[in-house]
């Protein structure tokens, strides 16, 4: 799977959403999250993010390695909705992201 890391927080450019062929990039309050089971590893989202927030799971920079688990755990109680556009924004964030001070201000 691919992972969205800290540069997305409080920015949410959303260019990635338009590129994803399987609509597996979901919106939280302060960040977007890639569904680990729905992502087909096409990689189309990665180059369009203007702040380089997106990485293949094995390539997440060391300082953001916890974002792999954060993206996975965001979906713990959601299961696999099968499409982000159908469920719309989700009114929460993973605790790792919720605890961050304001970013990208
Ligand atoms: Fe975030 Fe970059 Fe997408 S800032 S919303 S991961 S284009
Ligand atoms: Fe979609 Fe990016 Fe995965 S475009 S399929 S989230 S690699």
Averaged pLDDT, please?
A: 97
Taking all Cα atoms into account, the compactness measure Rg is 12 Å
Strand content: 5-15%
The share of residues in helices is: 10-25%
Q: How do the strands line up in the largest sheet? A: 1-4
Tell me the distance between the termini: 29 Å
H/E series: EHEEEHHH
Residue ranges: pLDDT <50 for 5 or more in a row?
A: none
- Determine the number of helices (DSSP H or I, runs of at least 4 residues): 4
Shape: globular
Structural class: alpha+beta
Main sheet: strands, sense, barrel: 2 strands, antiparallel
Number of strands: 4
- Bound ligands, named by name, code or SMILES: FE3-S4 cluster
InterPro entries: 4Fe4S_Fe-S-bd (IPR017896), 4Fe4S_Fe_S_CS (IPR017900), 7Fe_ferredoxin (IPR000813), FdxA_Actino (IPR054830), RnfB_subfamily (IPR050294)
Cofactor: [4Fe-4S] cluster; [3Fe-4S] cluster
GO molecular function: 3 iron, 4 sulfur cluster binding; 4 iron, 4 sulfur cluster binding; electron transfer activity; metal ion binding
Keywords: 3Fe-4S, 4Fe-4S, Electron transport, Iron, Iron-sulfur, Metal-binding, Repeat, Transport
Kindly describe this structure:
- Ferredoxins are iron-sulfur proteins that transfer electrons in a wide variety of metabolic reactions.
- Keywords: 3Fe-4S, 4Fe-4S, Electron transport, Iron, Iron-sulfur, Metal-binding, Repeat, Transport.
- This is Ferredoxin.
- It holds the Pfam family Fer4.
- The chain is an alpha+beta fold and 105 residues long.
- It is 20% helix and 11% strand.
- Strands 1-4 form a two-stranded antiparallel ribbon. It has a two-stranded antiparallel sheet with strand order 2-3.
- A hairpin with a 4-residue loop joins β2 and β3.
